[in-house]
Amino acid sequence: MTPVLIDTDTFINLLRKRHPIPGIAQQHISAFGQLMISTISFYEARRGLTLARVIAQVQQLQLIEPHLTLLPVDRAVAESCANLYVDLQRKNALLPDADLLVAATALVYNLTLATSNQRHFGRIPKLRLVDWRDDRVG
Fold this sequence. Notes:
The protein has helices spanning 8-15, 21-32, 39-52, 55-64, 75-90, 97-108, 118-121; strands spanning 4-6, 35-38, 68-71, 112-114, 129-130. By secondary structure, it is of the alpha/beta class.
């Protein structure tokens, strides 16, 4: 098991308690004492919960929040993101800025990105990906 950065889609599925994601998240909390998420993904999920007012997911967030470590967009992440943008623009394969910031965070912190959007993030060289929807993942 290696440390991961949780992407927005995986985080939302965790809050929705979609099998097998909560079990895998618990394994990571047991192994590493935390779940890592970018401030961008936390914002996107929190924004969605605030708009939707889904009480069950807000309650789940309150249970998980003490185990979250939010990784900031600092200078290293911003510079990595800028380089990703230029590389992908030259290939005519740009991603939205929020996704580039999440990917840059994973790269800077040397983390695997837990996401179900493999094809989308697969455009980014050297970014390691894992899909927690797969029962075989741990």
